[in-house]
Structure formats: C-alpha cells, structure tokens
Amino acid sequence: MEHEEAMRAAIMEAQQTKQDVPVGAVVVYEGKIIAACHNRREEDNAPFAHAEMLAMNEAAKVLGTRRLTGCTLYVTLEPCPMCAGAIILSGLSKCYFGAYDRQSGCCGSVYYIPQDRCFNHQVMCVGGILEEECTRLLTDFFAQKRRGE
C-alpha cells in the first residue's frame, strides 16, 4: 500500500468525526489496513480517545497481541506526547503523519519522543504526507468553530 493511499484512508476517517477535531488514523499491516479510527474525545467523553490511540488499540485486537511489530501508523496530524509515547510502547514499526503540529507535536515539531534514545525502542516518524489536505481539514474545522457553526 502506498503512503498516499493510506493517508487518504486516514483523511476519510477524519471526515467521519461529528464533534471532534478531525483527525483520522489507520494502521497498516502486511499491506492492508487493519484498523481505522477518528478522534472521539468529545463524542465518548474520553480524554484518551485520540484517533491514533483508538487505531492502535483496534489493531492490537485484530492481531491478538499488544505488540504492533510490523505495523505502520498513518495519522492526519502529528501525534501529541501521549500518542507518541503509545507509539513507542506498542512496538509500532513506523509512523507517517500529514499535518505538523507546531504547538504540541511530538514526532518532530516540538520534540521527537519516538526517536529519543533514552527509550529501548525507537520508531521512525515522517511528516508531510498529503500535508496540505490534512492541514485543510483542521483549518476548515476551526474556521467553522470561530463562526459558531
């Protein structure tokens, strides 16, 4: 599966959000999407219901193991500190994201948690995959919020 194809699936997932910031994530294993989720923090009243956390959890259920070795995460927004930590702890192999989060992104913007050598596992993260489209999702959402829509 190509990076753009997987990111487009994550974008489609992000568009499913009802009340939340439109972030979508998919987990790919052996060339197939095995999990797809979007932010559900507001919808579920759950502070940890970030798209990537939900997708990694779903992937673990599909695989029947907590270890996501051989899996690649695609997410429309650069992971926050919590999600970056979960990326390490899950044993994920790679992470690709679309939009950079210059305020709290921890896969390269503010910090690079998954590459910190103090942890026993490092994960390569690459940003900017369909960046313009991923950024547009967010800017459109916040513009609507400001207009009171």
Question: Helicity range of the residues?
Answer: 25-40%
Strand content: 15-25%
Query: Over all CA atoms, what is the radius of gyration?
Result: 14 Å
Mind summarizing the main beta sheet? Answer: 5 strands, mixed
**Count of strand segments:** 5
Helix and strand run: HEEHHEHEEH
Average pLDDT for all residues: 96
As an assembly, this protein is: single chain
Tally of helical runs: 5
Shape: globular
Unreliable residue stretches: none
Distance linking N and C termini: 37 Å
Strand order of the largest sheet: 2-1-3-4-5
**Which structural class is indicated by helix and strand composition?**
alpha/beta
Tell me the layout of helices and strands.
Layout: H1 3-14, E1 24-29, E2 32-38, H2 41-44, H3 51-63, E3 71-77, H4 81-90, E4 94-99, E5 124-126, H5 131-147
Parallel strand pairs: 3-4, 4-5
Antiparallel strand pairs: 1-2, 1-3
Note down, in words, how this protein is organized:
This protein has a 5-stranded mixed beta sheet. The mean pLDDT is 96. The protein is built from 5 helices and 5 strands; from the N terminus they run αββααβαββα. A hairpin with a 2-residue loop joins strand 1 (24-29) and strand 2. The chain has helices at 3-14, 41-44, 51-63, 81-90, 131-147, and strands at 24-29, 32-38, 71-77, 94-99, 124-126. By secondary structure, the chain is of the alpha/beta class. It is globular, with a radius of gyration of 14 Å.
